[in-house]
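Technical note accompanying the year-one report. For the benefit of new consortium partners, we illustrate the data format agreed upon in the data management plan: each record pairs a sequence with a structure-token string. No post-processing was applied to the example shown here.
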Amino acid sequence: MSSNRGIIRTGLSQLGVLITYPLVNALAGCLVLHITSSGVINNIIVRYLQKYIGKQNIAFAMVGIYAFFVFTILDYIVKILSKSEIDDSPSMRWIRIIKKSTMVSRIQALHISLIDSFPLFAAAVIISYVTSVPILVRNTFSILFVISKLISAISSFLYLEFPRSLFWAMSNICCYILFSYAVWLDFPKYFKRAIRKWEYIFKDVSDYYGFHYK
């Protein structure tokens, strides 16, 4: 009887993943469109960064900031807290580590999670430069990637599963959009059409806040 219950629980758990995973990614895609169409990143963050970084270099700067935080600051914090509690085996992954109760284990889990995301992000930004993806697109999605990863990391550290999954999916979608702009010439047309539909559903949020997406 107990084995049958275990099988049922496992089946229900797998079914839940099959249902919720696509829904989380769909919701994350809608949020990416919503944030992009609002113009918050372009009109506030990019405008502020332009005072210190050339507009054409902001996307590369985001890669540098992300790498510096993950491979230097966070790595130093993990090692300085407790070397004895860290498992350096390559098989360790954050899904398993995050369930441990110690502070060091949770920080190590975040460190590994962020390292896993770096190659995708760096490749997306480099390819977007090589293929001359518009500056606005490069800046918007590179900044949104870093913000999404930061929120996802904080959520996983606080055991907030849904926000962690949502913003993790958003960060991946930002990279996929950069790849799509680089590979398919017609993608910007469909992307802007999706943004217009999203703005219409939400009563043109960009006009409400006085922002404009170009």
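Partners are asked to follow this layout when depositing records. The radius of gyration is 20 Å.
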